[in-house]
Amino acid sequence: MRTKAENFVTLDFPSRSSNEGFARTAAACFAAQLDPTLEELNDVKTAVSEAVTNAIVHAYPDTIGKISMKLRLHPDNSLEIVIRDWGVGIADVEQARTPMFTTGGEERAGMGFTIMESFMDTLRLRSVPGKGTTVTMRRKISRRPGAR
Ligand SMILES: Nc1ncnc2c1ncn2[C@@H]1O[C@H](COP(=O)(O)OP(=O)(O)O)[C@@H](O)[C@H]1O
Ligand SMILES: [Mg+2]
Fold first, then answer.
1. Residue 31 near residue 38, CB atoms below 8 Å
2. How confident is the chain (148 residues) per 10-residue block, as mean pLDDT?
3. Which residue's C-alpha comes closest to atom 3 of ligand 1?
4. What number does the ligand 1 atom closest to the CA of 85 have?
């Protein structure tokens, strides 16, 4: 097996709402090896929660479909998270990223991407209508003096 990444895991799960908490906790467990602060850990968990919730509620509105989450560590102490679905896709990704834009009606705030962007260092959104969506986020974890 050849890879540039120092360590990685891939998790595939169905778009059941109970798996949102699983994905969030799994990402936190994986991130723990970077010795993050509680704040860094919470930022990562919040971003994962938003991305996975989007796949559950928007990508597969009337069905249960597959969601894949890849977690990768990079040598610069950054964590990369790729959350992918094979659902309905997004016609206009710039519009989707606009604060308060939602197709979810009254009960959605339209702040998911804004939250992911503010808690992570980078966010890339790729989507093909009818084929699915991939959200790639990266966050550098501080190296704390005295740790490792
Ligand atoms: N995985 C996805 N598949 C299809 N559409 C998505 C996906 N993620 C986001 N969207 C679209 O982008 C919009 C904005 O997402 P977001 O900022 O999280 O706000 P909210 O989820 O509150 O609507 C959603 O309303 C939806 O139309
Ligand atoms: Mg959302």
1. no
2. 77 98 98 96 98 98 97 95 98 97 93 98 98 98 77
3. 59
4. 1
